[in-house]
Design goal:
This protein has 12 helices and 12 strands. By secondary structure, the chain is α/β, with parallel strands linked by helices. The strands form 2 sheets. The protein has a 7-stranded mixed β-sheet with strand order 1-7-6-5-4-2-3, sandwiched between helices. Helix 5 runs parallel beside helix 6 and helix 11 packs across helix 12.
Length: 388
């Protein structure tokens, strides 16, 4: 048998030309069409896969779902959702009532809030762990009783801790637990959790995949037939669907993912290097730094270091707020993964984990000229009050 020549293509090429495109017929469009219809002509008993109603399926979802599934190395297309949290909720629905959920104490704050909601409504036992402490996580998976699911962020939001994903997957499966991974920070160009045995992968498509700060979307993937069917059923029954136009925009953004991630990662690594020796900086976190606690794991397990940087200036929360106020190029805003560089002090949210330092600035590095980004940071750090 001859292998498909597309199998040898890099992800950077696949995302541009080989996935989610119409068939190459004479006169055919290069891009898939945008189909705006809530319902479809149908009479009699619908056949398998036949378009029927927009909550069940939409043709405009398919090219994006195919492309993301290909990038993640899944045997199934992705399932697009109306938001990242809708995708996370679908994945966490796999934890049965009364089951145990183990997840990072420094996960996305809304994920942590939803886990507490599951505890209150469904009696799910929620155990928080330091995801980069492998032995502690392994212990938590079996005590006081076996976990139903291990939820992983790597790197974590916002502390940038890097997990030993293969070891954690093996340990979770050994006690019969599913493993869900939020791969938003890394993107499938930097990390592909299915390669390490993960059961479910989710993305906030709002962030790097769409990449232009103009849509709110999510996606969930499962390699197993039964798990994929359960996620699909959840989306249909809960109405957690995405609008066709938003998905069409996300696919357009996805085509430039490799270029955007390459530039943003390069910028982030250079800024982290400069910040690490700046006299106004108390701490900087980025896995590219040899001194970073996650550097060895990120080097071994990932194809890059991501474009999120953690910064703590000298002077505490007041100095952090002053840095944000003094910036002119960087955008003070929540969310991340757009072409523009943004930052925020995470503990400005009362719902953020109390173990996140109050002075931590989460920086989402964009694709601007790195010297312009640095000059803006440098003047803002100089303007911030310093302790005596």
């Amino acid at each position: 048998m001859t292998s498909d020549p597309l199998d040898a293509l890099s992800p950077a090429t696949l995302v541009v030309v080989a996935a989610g495109r119409p068939d190459r017929a004479q006169g055919a469009p290069v891009n898939p069409p945008l189909v705006l219809s809530s319902t479809f002509v149908s009479q009699g008993v619908p056949g398998p896969g036949e378009p029927l109603y927009g909550r069940m399926d939409a043709a405009t979802w398919h090219p994006f779902e195919e492309t993301l599934g290909t990038l993640e190395g899944s045997t199934h297309p992705a399932l697009v959702f109306g938001s990242g949290m809708a995708a996370i909720a679908a994945a966490l629905s796999l934890v049965p009532p009364g089951g145990r959920l183990v997840l990072p104490r420094h996960a996305y704050q809304v994920t942590l809030g939803y886990a507490q909601d599951l505890r209150d409504r469904l009696g799910i036992d929620v155990t928080l762990v330091d995801i980069d402490d492998t032995s502690a996580v392994v212990g938590a998976l079996s005590e006081p009783r076996p976990a139903s699911m291990l939820w992983v962020e790597t790197p974590t939001n916002p502390m940038l801790e890097v997990a030993d994903l293969p070891a954690l997957v093996d340990a979770a499966h050994a006690v019969g637990a599913l493993v869900g991974v939020d791969n938003t920070f890394a993107t499938p160009l930097v990390q592909r959790p299915f390669e390490h045995g993960a059961d479910v992968v989710v993305h906030s498509v709002t962030k790097y995949l769409a990449g232009h700060t103009d849509v709110v979307l999510g996606a969930a993937l499962a390699d197993d037939d039964a798990l994929h069917a359960r996620l699909h059923a959840y989306r249909t029954l809960h109405g957690s669907i995405a609008g066709p136009f938003e998905v069409w925009l996300a696919l357009r953004g996805l085509r430039t993912l490799a270029l955007r991630v390459e530039r943003a990662q390069s910028n982030a690594a250079e800024l982290a290097r400069r910040l690490s020796t700046h006299p106004a900086v108390a701490e900087v976190r980025h896995p590219s730094l040899p001194s970073d606690p996650g550097h060895e794991r990120a080097t071994r397990l990932m194809d890059g270091f991501g474009a999120i940087v953690g910064l703590r200036p000298h002077g505490g929360p007041d100095a952090a707020d002053a840095v944000v106020a003094a910036l002119r190029l960087w955008v003070p805003a929540t969310s991340l993964g757009g072409v523009e560089s943004t930052l925020e002090r995470r503990r400005r949210f009362a719902t953020e984990s109390v173990t996140v330092p109050e002075d931590l600035l989460r920086m989402s590095v964009g694709i601007e000229d790195v010297e312009d980004l640095w000059n803006d940071l440098a003047q803002a750090l100089a303007a911030a009050p310093r302790p005596l």
